[in-house]
């Protein structure tokens, strides 16, 4: 009775192994970074100086404020499957620029449902108290309703992901590439 089911099971199992194998081979390389640069990769790298790329190691905020630094960090977070943290932080930065009271509530709701709510599609890792405070803030959304959650996510990225980024192949390859251009 079980014999007819085994070939079907083996096929599904093999497919799952193949998919999981693809995940385990997620690359952490310079080429992954160039694929998501805001400009054409070669032109962007010609514009990026070794000095600029080296300054990214000065502080996390220096990295976030640089267009190519942000792109490189995003590429790195994708290799760690944690880009939702940066996406949430960027969504909050954009949200703070909202001038229309009519758009404020709908933008806040979208951010909450995408990143904060329990089992949100791109849920960020924040503690229960911060999640609940943000939920209460949603009753009367203001430009500061995500401040605590954004601060927690910024701190998490700065203490956890940022040091790993500075040691990553993406960053070291990028530095090497800019230095090679000089010689």
TrEMBL record:
<dbReference type="GO" id="GO:0043204">
    <property type="term" value="C:perikaryon"/>
</dbReference>
<dbReference type="GO" id="GO:0030425">
    <property type="term" value="C:dendrite"/>
</dbReference>
<keyword id="KW-0539">Nucleus</keyword>
<protein>
    <recommendedName>
        <fullName>Regulator of G-protein signaling 8</fullName>
    </recommendedName>
</protein>
<dbReference type="GO" id="GO:0009968">
    <property type="term" value="P:negative regulation of signal transduction"/>
</dbReference>
<dbReference type="Pfam" id="PF00615">
    <property type="entry name" value="RGS"/>
</dbReference>
<dbReference type="InterPro" id="IPR044926">
    <property type="entry name" value="RGS_subdomain_2"/>
</dbReference>
<keyword id="KW-0966">Cell projection</keyword>
<dbReference type="InterPro" id="IPR024066">
    <property type="entry name" value="RGS_subdom1/3"/>
</dbReference>
<keyword id="KW-1003">Cell membrane</keyword>
<feature type="domain" description="RGS">
    <location>
        <begin position="59"/>
        <end position="175"/>
    </location>
</feature>
<dbReference type="GO" id="GO:0005886">
    <property type="term" value="C:plasma membrane"/>
</dbReference>
<dbReference type="InterPro" id="IPR016137">
    <property type="entry name" value="RGS"/>
</dbReference>
<dbReference type="InterPro" id="IPR036305">
    <property type="entry name" value="RGS_sf"/>
</dbReference>
<keyword id="KW-0472">Membrane</keyword>
<dbReference type="GO" id="GO:0005634">
    <property type="term" value="C:nucleus"/>
</dbReference>
<dbReference type="InterPro" id="IPR034949">
    <property type="entry name" value="RGS_RGS8"/>
</dbReference>
<keyword id="KW-0734">Signal transduction inhibitor</keyword>
């Amino acid at each position: 009775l079980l014999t007819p089911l085994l070939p079907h099971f083996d096929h599904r199992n093999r497919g799952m192994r193949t998919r999981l194998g693809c995940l385990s081979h997620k690359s952490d390389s310079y080429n992954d970074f160039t694929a998501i640069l805001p400009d054409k990769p070669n032109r962007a790298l010609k514009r990026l100086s070794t000095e600029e790329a080296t300054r990214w190691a000065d502080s996390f905020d220096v990295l976030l404020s640089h267009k190519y630094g942000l792109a490189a960090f995003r590429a790195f977070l994708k290799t760690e499957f944690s880009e939702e943290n940066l996406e949430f932080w960027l969504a909050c930065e954009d949200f703070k620029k909202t001038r229309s009271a009519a758009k404020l509530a709908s933008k806040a709701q979208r951010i909450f449902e995408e990143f904060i709510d329990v089992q949100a599609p791109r849920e960020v890792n924040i503690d229960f108290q911060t999640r609940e405070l943000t939920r209460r803030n949603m009753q009367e959304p203001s430009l500061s309703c995500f401040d605590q959650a954004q601060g927690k996510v910024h701190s998490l990225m700065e203490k956890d992901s940022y040091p790993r980024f500075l040691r990553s192949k993406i960053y070291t390859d990028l530095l090497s590439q800019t230095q090679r251009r000089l010689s």
